[in-house]
Amino acid sequence: MAKTSLFQKLRTAAALIFVFLLIYGTNRLDKHHFENVQHIMNTVYQDRIVAQHYIYQLSNLYRQKSEGVPGSLKEEAAKDINRQIDEYIRLFSATKLTSKEAQVFQLLKKNSEELRALEAHLAALPNNGLSKERISQLKAKANVIFENLDSLSEIQLNEGGRLRRVAQDSLDSNSFFAQLELLILVFIGLLVQVIIFYVPKSNQ
């Protein structure tokens, strides 16, 4: 009888340990999915929504430069716009860039430097070098920059959509495992009841 009682206690302890390990494992899995979704949310905000804001601001600044005729902006106003452009480019470079995004961003910086060099060259010429040909050069370079900004904006949209799908997949997996965990716990609960209360018939 003592052996039967000891065996029953060991079975109960083993069942309880198994339940503990199951709950611990599923808890760690839930924590992993939660951290993954949280990371994606932070990434979408910092590297996509904020980056889109920088692109929008850059687009406005370049539009101010391209409107009207070259040299129409006062020198101090032109310097202020350039300072703002440099700051937004610096902020954008601090976001996490995809390989395609990094390529387009390098083109944007290159074209921005070329536009600024062209503006400085024209400013040094008599009458600011204003001619149809010179103005056409500036407008063409500005249009290339707008194309770069449009490409970067499209990347934000596509990458944001990709991250949303990843987050949804993680949430779906978490929901599936939560339901599976509930079913297993119910089964284990019933099994524990059987282990605790089942008393084998003694041979007479």
Question: What's the SSE blueprint?
Answer:
Elements: H1 2-66, H2 75-93, H3 99-124, H4 132-197
Number of strands: 0
Q: Strand portion, in percent?
A: under 5%
Compute the separation of the termini in Å. 13 Å
* Computed structural class: mainly alpha
Number of continuous helical runs? 4
**Helical percent range?**
over 70%
Order of helices and strands: HHHH
CATH fold field value: f41 fragment of flagellin, N-terminal domain
CATH class: Mainly Alpha
* Whole-number tally of structural domains: 1
Coarse shape: rod-shaped
Rg for CA atoms = 33 Å
Largest sheet: none
Query: What is the averaged pLDDT score?
Result: 77
The CATH level-2 architecture is identified as: Up-down Bundle
Unreliable residue stretches: none
Structure description:
With 204 residues, the chain is an all-alpha fold. The protein is built from four helices and no strands. α1 (2-66) runs antiparallel to α2 (75-93). The relative contact order is 0.14.
